[in-house]
Amino acid sequence: MRDFSRVEIDSILQRAEKLETFASKGSSNLLDGKILAMLFYEPSTRTRLSFETAMKRLGGETINMVSTEVSSAAKGEMLADTIKVVGEYADVIVLRHPKEGSARMSAEISGVPIINAGDGAGHHPTQTLLDLYTIKRESHLHNLNIALIGDLKYGRTVHSLAYALSLYDAKISMVSPEQLCIPIAIKEDLTKRGINIYETTKLEDVIEEADVIYVTRIQRERFPDIGEYQKVAGSYRVSLESLKHCKEDVIIMHPLPRVDEIDVDVDSTKHAKYFKQAFYGVPVRMAVLSLVLGCEA
Ligand code: NCD
Question: Which residue has its alpha carbon closest to ligand 1 atom 11?
Fold first, then answer.
């Protein structure tokens, strides 16, 4: 996300808007004859399925590494070799891997485009693009006041989103337990970009002013010590009660999966946009795929 300009992001969002008509019904032959390889070394539901849907609804095909246990990763094959080989089969690769920097390394050695679908606790740029698309469609990007809540240390979605929001002059508040605040390197980068972040441990401090409340899951799997996870598990919960203090047109977002950060009672309110957000993954990933494959939308 660090490499994107605002003009580039805006053009992807516009492309997604054009393609949205193919996202839920109908189909197109824009990516006819193209093959997308899905390399997922970590669990995924939405990212994997929305990439596959995007590719197929645009007339392309997908090939899948079914699980790391039944692929050569289980025999100790290194990622670089897998990337080189799969690049001979496919026109583009989507990679999710537990190591930070794995997508960048892969992009350096790959003969075909690599799309980062999450590199450990690093980044998740296509999630950010769909988050921005959701904000644009369901709220507003101009003069945005957004609260990022939860695991800001290990949560890759918020890392990428914070960089992107810095291009939109958003007012960003960050709410997390002290142990899970945003990494210092990211904070310094954002400060260099002229963005001031308001940090707090209390949801009440930001909830009244926010246009968007972006909730995240505490990333249990990234904690070196489960005892440390247990200390912060369940720290925040957005409920019908919390909504009473919010703006009338506030929207609640979450990259999902949710554990217990948002009460299910909230789902039926007009503020809940997380399922819509998951749907927007399809047009946005259509836009990204068509762009990297050089196919005009
Ligand atoms: C996120 C991820 O994998 O980083 N999920 C997603 O892609 N929608 C968030 C999470 O796992 O908490």
Answer: 257
Which of 94, 102, 127 is the pocket-test mutation for ligand 1 (most atoms within 8 Å of CB)?
127
Residue 141, judged by CB atoms within 10 A of its CB (0-12, 13-18, 19+), counts as buried
Residue 50 and residue 205: Cα distance in Å, rounded? 35
Annotation says 140 is catalytic: no
The closest alpha carbon to 122, from 105, 94, 143, 101, belongs to: 101
pLDDT of res. 27: 85
Catalytic (active site) residue 57: no
Q: Which domains does the chain have, with CATH numbers?
A: 6-123+278-292 (3.40.50.1370), 125-274 (3.40.50.1370)
Please identify which of the residues 47, 82, 126, 128 carries the catalytic annotation. 47
Q: What is the pLDDT of residues 194-252, one digit of tens each?
A: 998 999 999 999 999 999 999 999 999 999 999 999 999 999 999 999 999 999 999 99
Q: What is the pTM of this model?
A: 0.96
Q: Where are the alpha helices (DSSP H) in the chain?
A: 6-19, 46-57, 79-89, 102-109, 125-138, 156-166, 184-192, 226-232, 240-243, 274-292
The Å distance, Cα 256 to ligand 1 centre, comes to 6
Give yes or no: 46 in active site. Answer: yes
